[in-house]
C-alpha cells in the first residue's frame, strides 16, 4: 500500500459523506417540518372535537405557525452567521421537536397556539440554516447532486403527510402526530454532531432589527392575504388590508435597504442573473407546485368521491417519480446544462399540469397514477435545477442572506399557490352557477395554473448557454 493511499481513502469517504450522507441528514430534518405541516391539516377536524373547539377556530394553530415563521425567517441567516450554522441547525431541531411534543400535550387551544408559535420559530431557522450548512460544506461542482439528495426527504413530506395523518387519527390518538418529531430530531442531532463538519462563524454587523420587523410583518401580511383568498373567513376589506399592509411594509424595507450594507436581506443578489432566474423566474413554477397538492385533493376527494386515504395513496405515486429523478438529475444537467433543461423541462411540466385537468371520474386509476408519476419526475427535476442554479454565482460571504431571501420567496410563493388555487376553483364554481365544488370547477383551474407556469420561460431563455456550468460539472469536465 502506497503512503498516499490513506489520504485518498479519507478523501473518498469525505466526498461520499458530502454527496449523500450530509444532504440526507439535513433533508430528514426538513422532512420532519414538511410532513408535520401536512399532517396537522388533515387532523384538524379530529383535534377540534378532542379540544371542544370549532375547526375554524382551531385553524389558528396553522395561522400562528405561519406568522411566527414569517417573523423569524428574515433573521435566520444573521443568527447562523453570528453563532455558527451547525449549532443553530441542531438547536432548531431540538426546539422544533420540543415544541411539537408540547403540541401533543396541549389540553386547550391556547396551549396549542403557544406551542405552535415556538414551532414556527424553530421551523423558520431549520430550513434556510440547513441549506446554508450544505452550501458551506459542499464544493460547487458537487452541489447539484447534494441538493438532489437533500430535497428528496423534503419532497416526501407533503405526499406521505396525508396518509400518515389519516392513519394516525383513524387508528390511534391525534397527539401521536406531534410526538413523531421527537425520535427523528434525536437521531438527527446525533448524526449532525458526528458527520456534519463545523461551519465557521462569519463576521457580521449588528442585527438589523428594523429591517427584520419590516420584512417579517410584510411577509406575514402577504401570506395571510393569500391564505384567505376564496375562503370567506375574513371580509373582503380585511383581505385587501392584509395585502396593502404587507406590500407597504416590504416597500418600506426596500427603501430602508438601499445603500445599507447591514440590511437583514441583501437585495443586490437579485442583480445576479442566475439567482434572479431561479428565484423570480422559478416563482411562477413554484406557484403551480404549491397549488397542485391542494387542487388534486379537491379533485380526487370532492370531485371524484374518493376517500382521503384512497386519494393519498394515489398521489403518493408522484413521490416515486420524484425519487427516480433524484438519481438522474446530475447527469441530465451535466449533459444539457441548466438553461436547456429549464426551458424544455418547463414546457413538459406545464403540459403535465394541464393534463391533470383532463382527468374524469371514469379515467382508469392506473392511467391517473402513471401521469402523476411522470409529472412528479419532471417537477422534481425542475425543483432540483432551480435550487442548484440559485447559488451558482453567489459568493460565500453572501450565501446566508441569499439562502434566507430564497426561503422567504419560496414561503410566500407557496401561499400564493394555495390562495390562487382556492380563488380559481371558487371562480369556476361561481361561473357554472354551482353552490358546491365539483370536478368541473377544479379541472379548468389546472389548465390556468399550467399556462401560468409558462411565464417563467421568459427568465430562462435569457440565460447564457453556460449558466451554472460550475455547479453541474460542465465547467470542469
From TrEMBL:
The chain crosses the membrane at residues 20-44, 56-76, 88-107, 113-134, 146-170, 176-195, 207-226, 232-254, 275-296, 302-324, 336-359, 365-391, 412-429, 441-461. The keyword Acyltransferase does not apply. SUPFAM superfamilies: MFS general substrate transporter (SSF103473). It is found in: Cell membrane. This is EmrB/QacA subfamily drug resistance transporter. Residues 22-468 form the Major facilitator superfamily (MFS) profile domain. It is a multi-pass membrane protein. Keywords: Cell membrane, Membrane, Transmembrane, Transmembrane helix, Transport.
Amino acid at each position: 500500500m502506497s503512503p498516499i493511499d490513506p489520504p485518498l481513502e479519507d478523501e473518498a469517504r469525505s466526498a461520499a459523506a458530502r454527496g449523500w450522507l450530509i444532504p440526507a441528514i439535513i433533508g430528514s430534518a426538513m422532512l420532519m417540518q414538511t410532513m408535520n405541516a401536512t399532517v396537522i391539516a388533515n387532523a384538524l377536524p379530529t383535534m377540534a372535537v378532542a379540544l371542544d373547539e370549532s375547526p375554524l377556530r382551531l385553524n389558528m394553530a396553522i395561522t400562528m405557525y405561519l406568522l411566527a415563521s414569517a417573523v423569524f425567517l428574515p433573521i435566520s441567516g444573521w443568527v447562523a452567521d453570528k453563532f455558527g450554522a451547525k449549532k443553530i441547525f441542531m438547536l432548531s431541531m431540538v426546539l422544533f421537536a420540543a415544541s411539537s411534543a408540547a403540541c401533543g400535550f396541549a389540553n386547550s387551544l391556547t396551549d396549542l397556539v403557544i406551542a405552535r408559535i415556538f414551532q414556527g420559530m424553530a421551523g423558520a431557522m431549520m430550513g434556510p440554516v440547513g441549506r446554508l450548512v450544505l452550501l458551506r460544506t459542499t464544493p460547487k461542482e458537487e452541489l447539484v447532486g447534494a441538493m438532489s439528495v437533500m430535497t428528496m426527504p423534503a419532497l416526501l413530506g407533503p405526499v406521505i403527510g396525508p396518509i400518515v395523518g389519516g392513519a394516525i387519527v383513524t387508528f390511534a390518538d391525534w397527539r401521536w402526530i406531534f410526538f413523531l418529531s421527537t425520535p427523528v430530531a434525536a437521531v438527527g442531532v446525533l448524526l449532525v454532531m458526528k458527520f456534519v463538519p463545523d461551519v465557521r462563524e462569519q463576521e457580521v454587523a449588528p442585527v438589523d432589527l428594523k429591517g427584520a420587523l419590516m420584512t417579517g410583518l410584510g411577509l406575514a401580511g402577504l401570506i395571510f392575504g393569500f391564505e384567505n383568498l376564496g375562503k370567506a373567513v375574513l371580509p373582503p376589506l380585511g383581505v385587501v388590508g392584509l395585502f396593502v399592509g404587507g406590500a407597504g411594509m416590504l416597500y418600506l424595507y426596500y427603501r430602508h435597504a438601499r445603500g445599507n450594507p447591514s440590511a437583514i436581506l441583501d437585495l443586490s443578489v437579485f442583480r445576479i442573473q442566475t439567482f434572479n432566474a431561479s428565484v423570480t423566474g422559478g416563482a411562477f413554477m413554484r406557484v403551480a407546485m404549491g397549488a397542485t397538492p391542494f387542487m388534486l385533493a379537491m379533485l380526487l376527494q370532492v370531485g371524484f368521491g374518493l376517500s382521503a386515504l384512497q386519494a393519498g395513496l394515489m398521489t403518493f405515486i408522484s413521490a416515486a417519480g420524484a425519487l427516480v429523478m433524484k438519481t438522474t438529475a446530475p447527469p441530465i444537467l451535466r449533459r444539457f446544462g441548466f438553461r436547456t433543461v429549464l426551458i424544455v423541462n418547463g414546457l413538459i411540466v406545464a403540459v403535465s399540469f394541464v393534463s391533470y385537468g383532463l382527468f374524469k371520474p371514469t379515467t382508469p386509476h392506473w392511467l391517473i397514477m402513471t401521469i402523476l408519476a411522470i409529472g412528479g419526475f419532471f417537477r422534481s427535476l425542475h425543483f432540483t435545477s432551480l435550487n442548484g442554479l440559485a447559488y451558482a454565482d453567489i459568493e460565500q460571504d453572501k450565501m446566508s442572506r441569499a439562502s434566507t431571501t430564497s426561503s422567504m420567496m419560496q414561503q410566500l410563493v407557496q401561499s400564493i399557490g394555495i390562495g390562487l388555487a382556492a380563488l380559481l376553483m371558487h371562480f369556476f364554481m361561481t361561473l357554472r352557477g354551482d353552490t358546491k365544488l365539483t370536478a368541473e370547477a377544479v379541472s379548468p383551474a389546472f389548465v390556468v395554473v399550467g399556462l401560468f407556469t409558462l411565464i417563467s420561460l421568459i427568465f430562462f431563455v435569457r440565460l447564457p448557454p453556460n449558466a451554472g456550468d460550475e455547479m453541474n460539472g460542465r465547467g470542469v469536465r
